[in-house]
From TrEMBL:
Superkingdom, natural source: Bacteria
EC number: 1.13.11.-
Organism: Pedobacter africanus
Protein's name according to its UniProt entry: 4,5-DOPA dioxygenase extradiol
UniProt entry keywords in alphabetical sequence: Dioxygenase, Oxidoreductase
């Protein structure tokens, strides 16, 4: 099917709605959250019950870091087990949600700041399926992923997200999946079930305050927030999905936080709902 035909099919299937779909940033943490019924995963499931059922889910995951921007465009994305050293039960999980090639074409067409590739090789990595399988366990809602261009600065991703705003009007849940504070090299197994270093807790509080006060530019310029920010974000891939979520906030929408907890000393699960 041609891109134009896909575009028309998408428009026929997903009409604009009266309500605007909320936007989420999920702190996904350990892949084990994908199979555990814990405080984090049960909150994800509760969130799915609290928001309107989406027509599709578009995930911006920390674990699809690419040169250029791509969107998955296959009929049935594979479940990717992109981790090691975990129990076999985690590797055995399959999340057989359908894709939506027409929605992928529409998504690519909305983005004018980049040429977006239609990808048929990736699938759903653990930043996507470990969260979404708790939210929509029947796997009957199309799930797509949008990659993060590692050559670009936070401002680029924030502005690109704004081009996706029309999808919210059509019932698409856009979900950023990463962690605000994410420094695996400094993890403490003694604090794996809860607790954070002073710098991690301090930076998490600063991030929360900036988010709640809509000080997005300071969040984009996180490298100017001091040494704690550099410890919290030694590499940007887990932080950038938050920029997509914030970029989709309009001027009248409120923000709420959930799963606001530090684990492993150097990682926070703090998550954001807009709308």
């Amino acid at each position: 099917m041609s891109g134009l035909a896909e575009f028309k099919t998408f428009n026929a299937n997903l009409q604009e709605q009266d309500s605007l779909m909320p936007v989420l940033f999920i702190g996904h943490g350990s892949p084990m959250n994908g199979i555990e019924n814990n405080a984090f995963s049960t909150t994800w499931a509760a969130m799915a019950r609290d928001i309107p059922q989406p027509k599709a889910v578009l995930v911006v995951s920390a674990h699809w870091f690419t040169r250029g921007t791509h969107v998955t465009a296959m009929d049935f994305p594979k479940t990717i087990h992109d981790f090691g050293g975990f129990p076999q039960a985690l590797f055995d999980v399959q999340y057989p949600a359908p894709g939506d090639p027409a929605l992928a074409a529409e998504t690519a067409g909305l983005i004018h700041s980049a040429v977006v590739g239609l990808d048929h090789d990736w699938g759903l990595d653990h930043g996507a399926w470990t969260v979404v399988r708790h939210m929509y366990p029947q796997a009957n809602i199309p799930v797509l992923q949008l990659s993060i261009d590692y050559t670009k600065a936070p401002e680029y991703h924030y502005q690109l997200a704004k081009e996706l705003y029309a999808l919210r009007k059509k019932g698409v849940l856009i979900l950023g999946s990463g962690n605000m504070v994410h420094n695996l090299r400094m993890m403490s197994w003694e604090m794996i079930n809860g607790g954070g270093y002073d710098w991690a807790l301090e930076m998490n509080e600063r991030f929360k305050s900036l988010i709640l006060n809509r000080e997005h530019q300071r969040l984009l310029d996180y490298q100017n927030l001091g040494k704690e920010a550099m410890l919290a974000i030694p590499t940007p891939e887990h932080y950038l999905p938050l920029m997509y979520t914030l970029g989709l906030q309009n001027t009248t929408e409120g923000v709420s936080l959930f799963n606001d907890k530090a684990v492993g000393g150097s990682l926070t699960m703090t998550s954001v709902r807009i709308g």
